[in-house]
Design a protein that fits this description.
This protein has 331 residues and is of the alpha+beta class. The chain has three domains: 68 residues, Uridine Diphospho-n-acetylenolpyruvylglucosamine Reductase, domain 2, CATH 3.30.43.10; 134 residues, Uridine Diphospho-n-acetylenolpyruvylglucosamine Reductase, domain 3; 106 residues, Uridine Diphospho-n-acetylenolpyruvylglucosamine Reductase, domain 1 (Alpha-Beta Complex). Helices cover 26% and strands 26% of the residues. Helix 3 packs across helix 4. It is globular and about 60 Å long. Bound molecules: NADP nicotinamide-adenine-dinucleotide phosphate. The site of NADP nicotinamide-adenine-dinucleotide phosphate (NAP) has 20 residues, from strand 8, helix 3 and strand 13.
């Protein structure tokens, strides 16, 4: 295992933004991670875990510590190394006739990152299909197994994002998938896709459909500097929504529970803030999906943060809704 010095992080993030890490290591095994943590502890520097960098915004000043890129590979049954590519695994499961992950097709990132933000799409969240998560406790360098419940999953949220979860590094994820499953094609875009085609889809056809729908809406990470959806869709109180409806009668909502509803933020950005496709310097709102911010040139982390803040202020002023980034800031 080689610990490198002064490694540029911009190429390791899909935003293509970020300065240098003082130290960088590619961890292929659990022992590599342990060694890396010991190195950081000895040097009294902080460490940071990186998957494939598709959901982070790294500061242009860089990271004054050790970046540990998790590259643990291997699939044993349904236990998968944290460094495996998410969509390759989804593809493999679908080919093998295993139900559960098909709606999560095409999401960029690694297996190890999937529980952190409880990735979700088209009515499925990864929490629905996770059996357990194997983690390295970095305080005592011992492996532990966390149950689905231990992960305390929420909407694009989990225990791993909170202070008490920060000491754990995910090394493997074990999934629970079914040989005989039920397809979920309830989301509008998916339902319309199959209604137009006039077919009752197979497992593989649902994956293909999701890939096609996503292609039409989300930017291709190999062509654009972006971290996908920049903000979370806000969940607000029903009363607040009812008040907003008086002003904006066509504002959509989705029921969360008896007290709360989720609002598609893209609708607010398109219809109330009118910022669809708007560019500010090197940063812009993606024209096909306003939740996505794009680095159109040599955008800096500050430019992105400033524009994101401006958007959040505009949403707050016009609707009273507080929004928060889904993308993690690396300071
Ligand atoms: P969309 O399908 O237009 O949905 C926009 C918003 O409305 C989302 O908050 C979505 O909830 C909600 N929604 C739509 N139909 C719903 C239904 N039938 N029941 C409950 N809620 C519903 O969103 P999009 O931008 O085209 O994205 C497609 C899917 O990919 C969405 O599920 C989105 O959340 C997901 N996505 C996830 C990530 C990520 O995990 N980082 C990034 C990009 C997109 P949900 O968010 O709960 O689905």
């Amino acid at each position: 295992m080689e610990i490198k010095e002064k490694v540029s992080l911009s190429d390791m993030t899909s935003f293509k933004i970020g300065g240098e890490a003082s130290y960088f290591v590619l961890a292929k095994t659990v022992d590599d991670i342990k060694e890396a943590i010991i190195f950081a502890n000895n040097k009294k520097i902080p460490w940071l875990v990186l998957g494939s960098g598709t959901n982070i915004l790294v500061n242009n000043e860089g990271y004054d510590g050790l970046v540990i890129k998790i590259d643990i590979k291997g699939i044993t049954g349904l236990k998968v190394g944290a460094g495996e590519n998410w969509d390759d695994f989804v593809s493999q499961c679908v080919k093998n006739g295993l139900y559960g992950l098909e709606n999560l097709s095409g999401i960029p990132g690694t297996i190890g990152a999937s529980p952190v933000q409880n990735i979700g799409a088209y009515g499925v969240e990864v929490k629905d299909v996770i059996e357990s998560v194997e983690v390295l406790n970095t305080e005592c360098l011992v492996l532990e197994t966390l149950s689905n419940k231990d992960c305390n999953f929420g909407y694009r949220d989990s225990f791993f994002k909170r202070p008490e979860g920060k000491k754990y590094i995910i090394t493997h994820v074990t999934f629970k998938l079914k040989k005989e499953g039920k397809l979920n094609i309830e989301y509008k875009d998916v339902r319309n896709y199959f209604t137009e085609k006039g077919i009752i889809p197979s497992l593989q056809e649902v994956r293909n459909a999701i890939l096609e729908i996503r292609k039409g809406k989300f930017p291709d990470l190999s062509k654009y500097g972006t971290a996908g959806s920049f903000f979370k869709n806000p969940i607000i109180k029903k009363e607040q929504y009812e008040k907003l409806l008086k002003k904006y009668p066509s504002m959509p909502n989705y029921k969360i529970d008896e007290l709360n509803v989720k609002i598609p933020l893209a609708w607010i950005l398109d219809n109330i803030c009118n910022i669809k496709g708007v560019r500010r310097g090197n940063v812009g709102v993606y024209e096909k999906q306003s939740l996505v911010l794009v680095n159109w040139g040599n955008a800096t982390s500050d430019e992105v943060k400033k524009y994101a803040k401006k958007i959040a202020i505009s949403v707050k002023q016009k609707t009273g809704i507080d929004i928060e980034p889904e993308v993690q800031y690396v300071l």
